[in-house]
Design brief:
Elements: H1 6-10, H2 23-28, H3 35-45, E1 58-63, E2 71-73, E3 77-83, E4 87-92, E5 97-102, E6 106-113, H4 115-122, E7 129-131
Antiparallel strand pairs: 1-3, 1-6, 2-7, 3-4, 4-5
């Protein structure tokens, strides 16, 4: 059975296009983009939210892990659950598990994702799992 396109899958989770900033990115995906190309397209339509997340909100950002020989997601999509003086913890939708992020390794700003955009972004393959060597 052939896979459905992002546009076909989106029709199951409709949101108001006027309120959904990422819809244009989804509509333009052809399937040959790299995760980093997709991330750049996503960041182009979102607004910077600063460096401090709010518990209970969703964010994406560029992350560069410092710990050697670990796998990490350089383009996380996270539901923030806890904020600490060293960073924050949250559920990473690309890993489907809790992860922690330190302030110094967040490159630039966080970008808040509205709840009505989350289902759409979960369909975009912009997660970039890397090995920090």
């Amino acid at each position: 059975m052939p896979r459905k396109t992002l546009k076909q899958r989106r029709e199951k989770n409709p949101t108001d296009d006027n309120q959904n900033r990422v819809r244009s990115v989804i509509d333009s995906v052809v399937g040959t983009e790299t995760p980093d190309d997709l991330m750049l397209s996503i960041l182009d339509v979102l607004d910077e939210s600063g460096k401090m997340p709010t518990v209970g909100k969703y964010y994406t950002f560029v992350y560069n892990a410092k710990t050697r020989n670990i796998r990490y997601d350089s383009n996380p999509l996270v539901a923030v659950t806890e904020v600490y003086n060293w960073g924050f913890r949250g559920f990473n939708y690309h890993w489907n598990e809790m992860r922690q992020y330190t302030w110094d390794e967040v490159a630039g700003s966080l970008y808040e994702i509205f709840s009505e955009e989350l289902a759409d972004l979960r369909e975009v393959p912009f997660g970039n799992i890397r090995l920090n060597s």
